[in-house]
## 1
Amino acid sequence: MKKIILISLFSFTSLFGFGIGNYQISPEFGANLAFQDSGKGTFSYGGYARVWLGVSRIVIAPAFKYDVITKENNLSTAYKNMQIGGLIGFEIPIIPLTPYIGGSYSTFSGGYEDTASFNYGVKFKIPIIRVTIGLDGTYQKPKNIYGNRANMNRIGATIGFQF
Protein backbone atom coordinates (compact mmCIF):
# COMPACT_ATOMS: atom_id res chain seq x y z
CA MET A 1 0.00 0.00 0.00
CA LYS A 2 2.84 2.40 0.82
CA LYS A 3 4.39 1.76 -2.59
CA ILE A 4 1.12 2.53 -4.37
CA ILE A 5 0.70 5.80 -2.46
CA LEU A 6 4.30 6.80 -3.13
CA ILE A 7 4.05 5.98 -6.86
CA SER A 8 0.75 7.89 -7.09
CA LEU A 9 2.24 10.93 -5.32
CA PHE A 10 5.20 11.11 -7.71
CA SER A 11 2.94 10.55 -10.76
CA PHE A 12 0.44 13.25 -9.81
CA THR A 13 3.07 15.84 -8.95
CA SER A 14 4.72 15.56 -12.37
CA LEU A 15 1.65 15.55 -14.60
CA PHE A 16 2.23 18.95 -16.21
CA GLY A 17 5.81 20.14 -15.74
CA PHE A 18 8.71 18.02 -16.73
CA GLY A 19 12.44 18.02 -17.17
CA ILE A 20 14.52 16.03 -19.59
CA GLY A 21 18.24 16.22 -18.92
CA ASN A 22 19.12 19.90 -18.66
CA TYR A 23 15.76 21.09 -20.08
CA GLN A 24 12.63 21.95 -18.12
CA ILE A 25 9.10 23.23 -18.67
CA SER A 26 7.28 24.24 -15.46
CA PRO A 27 3.96 26.13 -15.44
CA GLU A 28 3.31 28.17 -12.28
CA PHE A 29 0.29 30.12 -11.08
CA GLY A 30 -0.55 31.74 -7.79
CA ALA A 31 -1.64 34.74 -5.75
CA ASN A 32 0.14 37.76 -4.31
CA LEU A 33 -0.39 40.34 -1.57
CA ALA A 34 1.75 43.46 -1.80
CA PHE A 35 2.43 46.85 -0.24
CA GLN A 36 2.79 49.78 -2.63
CA ASP A 37 5.10 52.61 -1.68
CA SER A 38 3.67 55.51 -3.65
CA GLY A 39 3.62 58.07 -0.88
CA LYS A 40 0.17 56.93 0.25
CA GLY A 41 0.87 53.41 1.51
CA THR A 42 -1.67 51.28 -0.33
CA PHE A 43 -2.04 47.52 -0.62
CA SER A 44 -2.61 45.36 -3.66
CA TYR A 45 -3.73 41.80 -4.20
CA GLY A 46 -3.95 39.70 -7.31
CA GLY A 47 -2.74 36.71 -9.22
CA TYR A 48 -0.08 35.66 -11.67
CA ALA A 49 0.76 32.94 -14.18
CA ARG A 50 4.06 32.11 -15.83
CA VAL A 51 5.67 29.18 -17.63
CA TRP A 52 9.31 28.61 -16.70
CA LEU A 53 11.40 27.31 -19.61
CA GLY A 54 14.96 26.40 -18.82
CA VAL A 55 18.22 25.01 -20.02
CA SER A 56 20.86 24.11 -17.44
CA ARG A 57 19.71 26.38 -14.54
CA ILE A 58 19.01 29.46 -16.71
CA VAL A 59 15.23 29.96 -16.92
CA ILE A 60 12.99 32.35 -18.83
CA ALA A 61 9.26 32.78 -18.44
CA PRO A 62 6.51 34.56 -20.30
CA ALA A 63 4.52 36.13 -17.47
CA PHE A 64 1.04 37.52 -16.78
CA LYS A 65 0.20 39.46 -13.61
CA TYR A 66 -3.06 41.11 -12.50
CA ASP A 67 -3.27 43.37 -9.44
CA VAL A 68 -6.08 45.25 -7.74
CA ILE A 69 -4.68 48.28 -5.93
CA THR A 70 -6.72 49.54 -2.98
CA LYS A 71 -7.47 53.10 -1.93
CA GLU A 72 -5.54 54.68 0.89
CA ASN A 73 -6.54 53.40 4.37
CA ASN A 74 -9.33 51.07 3.20
CA LEU A 75 -9.84 48.03 1.01
CA SER A 76 -12.07 49.47 -1.72
CA THR A 77 -10.68 49.36 -5.25
CA ALA A 78 -8.77 52.36 -6.57
CA TYR A 79 -7.56 50.89 -9.90
CA LYS A 80 -6.48 47.67 -11.56
CA ASN A 81 -3.15 46.87 -13.19
CA MET A 82 -2.45 44.12 -15.73
CA GLN A 83 1.10 43.26 -16.82
CA ILE A 84 2.23 41.03 -19.68
CA GLY A 85 5.93 40.42 -20.20
CA GLY A 86 8.85 38.16 -19.53
CA LEU A 87 11.28 37.13 -16.81
CA ILE A 88 14.77 35.66 -16.73
CA GLY A 89 16.28 33.93 -13.74
CA PHE A 90 18.87 31.53 -12.42
CA GLU A 91 18.11 28.42 -10.36
CA ILE A 92 20.61 28.01 -7.55
CA PRO A 93 21.82 24.39 -7.77
CA ILE A 94 21.85 23.33 -4.10
CA ILE A 95 18.54 24.84 -2.97
CA PRO A 96 15.43 25.32 -5.15
CA LEU A 97 15.73 29.12 -5.10
CA THR A 98 15.36 31.24 -8.25
CA PRO A 99 16.10 35.00 -8.28
CA TYR A 100 14.68 36.71 -11.38
CA ILE A 101 14.27 40.04 -13.17
CA GLY A 102 12.16 41.10 -16.12
CA GLY A 103 10.03 43.64 -17.87
CA SER A 104 6.36 43.98 -18.78
CA TYR A 105 3.88 46.09 -20.68
CA SER A 106 1.61 47.49 -18.00
CA THR A 107 -2.02 48.62 -18.52
CA PHE A 108 -4.24 50.37 -15.98
CA SER A 109 -7.92 50.93 -15.43
CA GLY A 110 -8.60 54.01 -13.38
CA GLY A 111 -6.64 57.17 -14.09
CA TYR A 112 -3.21 56.07 -15.32
CA GLU A 113 -1.71 55.67 -18.79
CA ASP A 114 -0.13 52.44 -19.99
CA THR A 115 3.60 52.14 -19.35
CA ALA A 116 6.51 49.75 -19.01
CA SER A 117 7.31 48.07 -15.71
CA PHE A 118 10.42 46.50 -14.22
CA ASN A 119 9.84 43.25 -12.32
CA TYR A 120 12.12 41.53 -9.83
CA GLY A 121 11.88 38.84 -7.21
CA VAL A 122 12.88 35.49 -5.83
CA LYS A 123 10.92 32.25 -5.55
CA PHE A 124 11.51 29.16 -3.45
CA LYS A 125 10.03 25.87 -4.64
CA ILE A 126 9.07 23.30 -2.00
CA PRO A 127 10.00 20.17 -3.98
CA ILE A 128 7.68 17.41 -2.79
CA ILE A 129 4.39 19.32 -2.72
CA ARG A 130 5.14 21.64 -5.69
CA VAL A 131 4.27 24.82 -3.80
CA THR A 132 6.26 28.02 -4.37
CA ILE A 133 6.64 30.93 -1.99
CA GLY A 134 8.46 34.12 -2.75
CA LEU A 135 8.92 37.85 -2.86
CA ASP A 136 7.89 39.75 -5.97
CA GLY A 137 8.38 43.40 -6.82
CA THR A 138 7.30 45.81 -9.53
CA TYR A 139 8.57 49.29 -10.30
CA GLN A 140 6.75 51.55 -12.76
CA LYS A 141 6.19 55.22 -13.36
CA PRO A 142 2.93 55.80 -15.27
CA LYS A 143 1.45 59.20 -16.08
CA ASN A 144 -1.72 60.10 -14.21
CA ILE A 145 -4.67 61.98 -15.69
CA TYR A 146 -2.94 65.32 -15.02
CA GLY A 147 0.20 64.34 -16.97
CA ASN A 148 2.40 63.88 -13.89
CA ARG A 149 4.40 60.69 -13.40
CA ALA A 150 3.43 58.60 -10.37
CA ASN A 151 6.20 56.63 -8.67
CA MET A 152 4.93 53.08 -8.00
CA ASN A 153 7.08 50.52 -6.24
CA ARG A 154 5.21 47.40 -5.11
CA ILE A 155 6.77 44.55 -3.17
CA GLY A 156 4.91 41.62 -1.75
CA ALA A 157 4.62 37.95 -0.93
CA THR A 158 3.56 35.26 -3.37
CA ILE A 159 2.28 31.73 -2.98
CA GLY A 160 1.76 29.49 -5.95
CA PHE A 161 1.76 26.04 -7.48
CA GLN A 162 4.46 24.93 -9.91
CA PHE A 163 3.88 21.79 -11.91
## 2
Amino acid sequence: MSKKTLFGASFDQSKKIVTEDILTEDGAGIGVLSSMSFWRKCLAFVVLALVFIGYFIGIAFPEGMLNAPNEDIKIISQSTAHLMGVIGIPMRPIIELFMYSFVALVFINFIPKLNYAHQLVYGWLTMIFFAIFGLFSVLPLATALTLGAFGSLAFILQVLIIIYFGTLKIRSTISNIKGQLYHHKQPAKDWMTLLQTLIKKYGGFLLLLSILNRWFFHFGDINKGGFELFSLIYGWIFLFFSIGYILMLQFIIKHIVTVFYFFKYRNEYRTYFKIPNEIWYGKLRGKLKNKLKNKRRTK
Protein backbone atom coordinates (compact mmCIF):
# COMPACT_ATOMS: atom_id res chain seq x y z
CA MET A 1 0.00 0.00 0.00
CA SER A 2 1.50 3.35 -1.09
CA LYS A 3 2.17 5.97 1.56
CA LYS A 4 -0.43 8.73 1.57
CA THR A 5 1.60 11.94 1.48
CA LEU A 6 0.41 15.52 1.67
CA PHE A 7 1.18 16.17 -2.00
CA GLY A 8 0.53 12.71 -3.40
CA ALA A 9 -3.25 12.74 -3.90
CA SER A 10 -4.95 12.03 -7.21
CA PHE A 11 -7.14 14.52 -9.07
CA ASP A 12 -10.34 12.99 -7.70
CA GLN A 13 -8.96 13.06 -4.16
CA SER A 14 -7.80 16.66 -4.51
CA LYS A 15 -11.35 17.75 -5.38
CA LYS A 16 -12.18 17.38 -1.68
CA ILE A 17 -10.06 20.46 -0.85
CA VAL A 18 -10.04 22.39 -4.15
CA THR A 19 -13.33 24.22 -4.62
CA GLU A 20 -14.53 26.73 -7.17
CA ASP A 21 -13.91 29.50 -4.62
CA ILE A 22 -10.26 29.37 -5.65
CA LEU A 23 -11.27 31.38 -8.72
CA THR A 24 -12.08 34.39 -6.49
CA GLU A 25 -9.66 36.72 -4.70
CA ASP A 26 -11.04 35.76 -1.30
CA GLY A 27 -10.99 32.05 -2.07
CA ALA A 28 -7.42 32.23 -3.37
CA GLY A 29 -6.38 33.76 -0.04
CA ILE A 30 -4.06 36.42 -1.46
CA GLY A 31 -6.47 39.11 -2.66
CA VAL A 32 -5.31 41.16 -5.65
CA LEU A 33 -2.13 39.09 -5.99
CA SER A 34 -4.30 36.40 -7.60
CA SER A 35 -5.84 38.80 -10.13
CA MET A 36 -5.05 38.63 -13.83
CA SER A 37 -6.25 42.24 -14.25
CA PHE A 38 -3.60 44.95 -14.72
CA TRP A 39 -5.59 47.52 -12.77
CA ARG A 40 -6.28 45.14 -9.90
CA LYS A 41 -2.56 44.40 -9.71
CA CYS A 42 -1.92 48.11 -9.20
CA LEU A 43 -3.66 47.85 -5.82
CA ALA A 44 -0.74 45.73 -4.62
CA PHE A 45 1.26 48.95 -4.37
CA VAL A 46 -0.79 49.78 -1.29
CA VAL A 47 0.94 46.86 0.45
CA LEU A 48 4.30 48.50 -0.26
CA ALA A 49 3.43 51.05 2.43
CA LEU A 50 3.81 48.20 4.92
CA VAL A 51 7.36 47.71 3.67
CA PHE A 52 8.33 51.15 5.01
CA ILE A 53 6.77 50.27 8.37
CA GLY A 54 8.65 46.96 8.41
CA TYR A 55 11.92 48.72 7.52
CA PHE A 56 11.44 51.17 10.39
CA ILE A 57 10.57 48.48 12.95
CA GLY A 58 13.21 45.98 11.84
CA ILE A 59 16.15 48.18 10.84
CA ALA A 60 15.87 51.92 11.54
CA PHE A 61 14.40 51.69 15.04
CA PRO A 62 16.80 49.03 16.47
CA GLU A 63 19.83 50.82 15.02
CA GLY A 64 18.59 54.11 16.47
CA MET A 65 18.14 52.50 19.89
CA LEU A 66 21.68 51.11 19.87
CA ASN A 67 23.32 54.53 20.18
CA ALA A 68 20.45 56.54 21.66
CA PRO A 69 21.35 58.65 24.73
CA ASN A 70 19.69 57.78 28.03
CA GLU A 71 17.50 60.88 28.09
CA ASP A 72 15.90 59.92 24.75
CA ILE A 73 14.85 56.44 25.91
CA LYS A 74 11.43 56.28 27.55
CA ILE A 75 9.34 53.41 28.94
CA ILE A 76 12.04 50.76 28.36
CA SER A 77 15.48 50.53 29.97
CA GLN A 78 18.79 51.50 28.35
CA SER A 79 19.94 47.88 28.30
CA THR A 80 16.73 46.77 26.54
CA ALA A 81 17.14 49.52 23.94
CA HIS A 82 20.76 48.50 23.39
CA LEU A 83 19.72 44.85 23.01
CA MET A 84 17.34 45.79 20.17
CA GLY A 85 20.30 47.07 18.21
CA VAL A 86 22.50 44.11 19.09
CA ILE A 87 19.81 41.71 17.78
CA GLY A 88 18.67 43.89 14.89
CA ILE A 89 22.02 44.63 13.21
CA PRO A 90 22.85 40.95 12.37
CA MET A 91 19.30 40.53 11.04
CA ARG A 92 19.53 43.54 8.73
CA PRO A 93 20.86 41.58 5.70
CA ILE A 94 18.06 39.02 6.05
CA ILE A 95 15.40 41.72 6.40
CA GLU A 96 16.74 43.62 3.40
CA LEU A 97 16.95 40.44 1.31
CA PHE A 98 13.26 39.62 1.75
CA MET A 99 12.21 43.28 1.60
CA TYR A 100 13.86 43.93 -1.77
CA SER A 101 12.75 40.53 -3.06
CA PHE A 102 9.14 41.29 -2.16
CA VAL A 103 9.27 44.73 -3.80
CA ALA A 104 10.78 43.18 -6.95
CA LEU A 105 8.11 40.47 -7.01
CA VAL A 106 5.35 43.11 -6.81
CA PHE A 107 6.75 44.87 -9.89
CA ILE A 108 7.38 41.61 -11.78
CA ASN A 109 3.76 40.68 -11.06
CA PHE A 110 2.73 43.09 -13.84
CA ILE A 111 4.23 40.71 -16.41
CA PRO A 112 1.30 38.62 -17.70
CA LYS A 113 1.37 34.99 -16.59
CA LEU A 114 0.56 32.04 -18.83
CA ASN A 115 -2.76 31.44 -17.09
CA TYR A 116 -4.60 31.78 -13.78
CA ALA A 117 -2.90 28.72 -12.26
CA HIS A 118 0.54 30.26 -12.81
CA GLN A 119 -0.71 33.56 -11.38
CA LEU A 120 -1.83 31.78 -8.19
CA VAL A 121 1.57 30.17 -7.71
CA TYR A 122 3.37 33.48 -8.30
CA GLY A 123 0.97 35.36 -6.02
CA TRP A 124 1.53 32.94 -3.17
CA LEU A 125 5.30 33.09 -3.67
CA THR A 126 5.05 36.87 -3.29
CA MET A 127 2.92 36.52 -0.17
CA ILE A 128 5.39 34.08 1.42
CA PHE A 129 8.26 36.52 0.89
CA PHE A 130 6.18 39.26 2.50
CA ALA A 131 5.33 37.02 5.48
CA ILE A 132 9.01 36.16 6.05
CA PHE A 133 9.95 39.84 5.75
CA GLY A 134 7.35 40.73 8.37
CA LEU A 135 8.57 37.97 10.68
CA PHE A 136 12.21 39.08 10.69
CA SER A 137 11.24 42.75 10.89
CA VAL A 138 9.44 42.31 14.21
CA LEU A 139 11.81 39.74 15.77
CA PRO A 140 14.48 42.21 17.04
CA LEU A 141 11.86 44.37 18.75
CA ALA A 142 9.82 41.50 20.18
CA THR A 143 12.85 39.51 21.35
CA ALA A 144 14.57 42.44 23.02
CA LEU A 145 11.41 43.59 24.82
CA THR A 146 10.74 40.12 26.21
CA LEU A 147 14.35 39.58 27.29
CA GLY A 148 14.48 43.02 28.87
CA ALA A 149 11.16 42.58 30.66
CA PHE A 150 11.35 39.02 32.00
CA GLY A 151 14.94 37.86 31.44
CA SER A 152 16.42 34.90 29.60
CA LEU A 153 14.72 32.17 31.66
CA ALA A 154 11.23 33.46 30.93
CA PHE A 155 12.19 33.95 27.29
CA ILE A 156 13.30 30.31 27.02
CA LEU A 157 10.00 29.19 28.54
CA GLN A 158 8.09 31.33 26.05
CA VAL A 159 10.07 29.71 23.23
CA LEU A 160 9.16 26.25 24.56
CA ILE A 161 5.49 27.23 24.69
CA ILE A 162 5.71 28.50 21.11
CA ILE A 163 7.40 25.27 19.96
CA TYR A 164 4.65 23.24 21.63
CA PHE A 165 1.82 25.38 20.27
CA GLY A 166 3.35 25.59 16.79
CA THR A 167 4.03 21.87 16.56
CA LEU A 168 0.52 21.07 17.76
CA LYS A 169 -1.15 23.43 15.29
CA ILE A 170 0.94 22.51 12.26
CA ARG A 171 0.58 18.77 12.88
CA SER A 172 -3.15 19.24 13.35
CA THR A 173 -3.42 21.24 10.11
CA ILE A 174 -1.50 18.66 8.07
CA SER A 175 -3.47 15.82 9.65
CA ASN A 176 -6.79 17.52 8.82
CA ILE A 177 -5.77 18.10 5.21
CA LYS A 178 -4.70 14.47 4.81
CA GLY A 179 -7.97 13.43 6.43
CA GLN A 180 -9.89 15.40 3.81
CA LEU A 181 -7.81 13.99 0.97
CA TYR A 182 -7.75 10.35 2.02
CA HIS A 183 -10.72 10.05 4.42
CA HIS A 184 -8.68 9.02 7.42
CA LYS A 185 -7.03 10.57 10.46
CA GLN A 186 -3.28 10.57 10.82
CA PRO A 187 -2.04 8.96 14.04
CA ALA A 188 -0.31 11.40 16.35
CA LYS A 189 3.39 10.85 17.00
CA ASP A 190 4.66 10.50 20.54
CA TRP A 191 7.95 12.40 20.34
CA MET A 192 6.34 15.61 21.64
CA THR A 193 4.15 13.99 24.29
CA LEU A 194 6.52 14.59 27.21
CA LEU A 195 7.08 18.24 26.32
CA GLN A 196 3.35 18.81 25.86
CA THR A 197 2.57 17.25 29.25
CA LEU A 198 5.21 19.30 31.06
CA ILE A 199 4.09 22.59 29.52
CA LYS A 200 0.42 21.89 30.20
CA LYS A 201 1.04 21.01 33.84
CA TYR A 202 3.87 23.30 34.80
CA GLY A 203 4.25 25.92 32.06
CA GLY A 204 2.25 28.68 33.77
CA PHE A 205 3.87 28.03 37.16
CA LEU A 206 7.38 28.01 35.69
CA LEU A 207 6.66 31.22 33.77
CA LEU A 208 5.50 32.88 37.00
CA LEU A 209 8.69 31.75 38.75
CA SER A 210 10.80 33.12 35.92
CA ILE A 211 9.06 36.50 36.22
CA LEU A 212 9.64 36.49 39.99
CA ASN A 213 13.27 35.62 39.27
CA ARG A 214 13.50 38.72 37.08
CA TRP A 215 12.00 40.78 39.90
CA PHE A 216 14.05 39.49 42.85
CA PHE A 217 16.92 37.10 42.04
CA HIS A 218 18.13 38.04 38.53
CA PHE A 219 19.52 34.59 37.60
CA GLY A 220 20.38 34.69 33.90
CA ASP A 221 19.11 38.28 33.74
CA ILE A 222 20.54 40.54 31.06
CA ASN A 223 18.84 43.65 32.46
CA LYS A 224 20.26 44.55 35.85
CA GLY A 225 18.01 47.53 36.30
CA GLY A 226 14.86 47.61 38.40
CA PHE A 227 11.72 45.79 37.35
CA GLU A 228 9.38 48.15 35.47
CA LEU A 229 5.63 47.75 35.84
CA PHE A 230 5.02 48.46 32.13
CA SER A 231 7.27 45.52 31.28
CA LEU A 232 4.46 43.22 32.40
CA ILE A 233 2.72 44.31 29.19
CA TYR A 234 5.48 44.49 26.58
CA GLY A 235 7.17 41.37 27.94
CA TRP A 236 4.48 39.23 26.26
CA ILE A 237 4.95 40.70 22.77
CA PHE A 238 7.22 37.89 21.57
CA LEU A 239 4.81 35.18 22.75
CA PHE A 240 1.64 36.69 21.27
CA PHE A 241 3.38 37.75 18.06
CA SER A 242 4.68 34.20 17.57
CA ILE A 243 1.26 32.68 18.26
CA GLY A 244 -0.26 35.04 15.70
CA TYR A 245 2.30 33.96 13.10
CA ILE A 246 1.65 30.29 13.83
CA LEU A 247 -2.07 30.81 13.21
CA MET A 248 -1.20 32.60 9.97
CA LEU A 249 1.08 29.69 9.05
CA GLN A 250 -1.90 27.35 9.39
CA PHE A 251 -3.78 29.50 6.89
CA ILE A 252 -0.79 29.53 4.52
CA ILE A 253 -0.32 25.75 4.65
CA LYS A 254 -3.97 25.10 3.80
CA HIS A 255 -3.90 27.42 0.81
CA ILE A 256 -0.49 26.28 -0.45
CA VAL A 257 -1.66 22.67 -0.57
CA THR A 258 -4.85 23.74 -2.35
CA VAL A 259 -2.94 25.85 -4.88
CA PHE A 260 -0.46 23.02 -5.40
CA TYR A 261 -3.21 20.63 -6.50
CA PHE A 262 -4.96 23.28 -8.56
CA PHE A 263 -1.68 23.92 -10.40
CA LYS A 264 -0.76 20.23 -10.68
CA TYR A 265 -4.14 19.37 -12.23
CA ARG A 266 -4.72 22.78 -13.86
CA ASN A 267 -5.97 21.38 -17.16
CA GLU A 268 -8.33 18.99 -15.37
CA TYR A 269 -9.66 21.76 -13.12
CA ARG A 270 -10.15 24.11 -16.04
CA THR A 271 -12.44 21.54 -17.59
CA TYR A 272 -14.02 20.52 -14.27
CA PHE A 273 -14.90 24.10 -13.23
CA LYS A 274 -15.62 25.15 -16.84
CA ILE A 275 -13.35 28.16 -16.45
CA PRO A 276 -13.91 30.69 -19.29
CA ASN A 277 -11.02 32.25 -21.17
CA GLU A 278 -11.59 35.67 -19.53
CA ILE A 279 -10.77 34.18 -16.12
CA TRP A 280 -8.13 31.71 -17.25
CA TYR A 281 -6.14 34.16 -19.39
CA GLY A 282 -7.41 37.52 -18.15
CA LYS A 283 -10.04 39.70 -19.80
CA LEU A 284 -7.92 41.08 -22.65
CA ARG A 285 -6.21 37.85 -23.67
CA GLY A 286 -9.41 35.93 -23.00
CA LYS A 287 -11.37 38.09 -25.44
CA LEU A 288 -8.66 37.68 -28.07
CA LYS A 289 -8.75 33.91 -27.59
CA ASN A 290 -12.53 33.95 -28.00
CA LYS A 291 -12.31 36.03 -31.18
CA LEU A 292 -9.74 33.68 -32.71
CA LYS A 293 -11.90 30.72 -31.74
CA ASN A 294 -14.99 32.29 -33.32
CA LYS A 295 -13.09 33.10 -36.52
CA ARG A 296 -11.99 29.49 -36.86
CA ARG A 297 -15.57 28.35 -36.46
CA THR A 298 -16.83 30.68 -39.19
CA LYS A 299 -14.26 29.48 -41.71
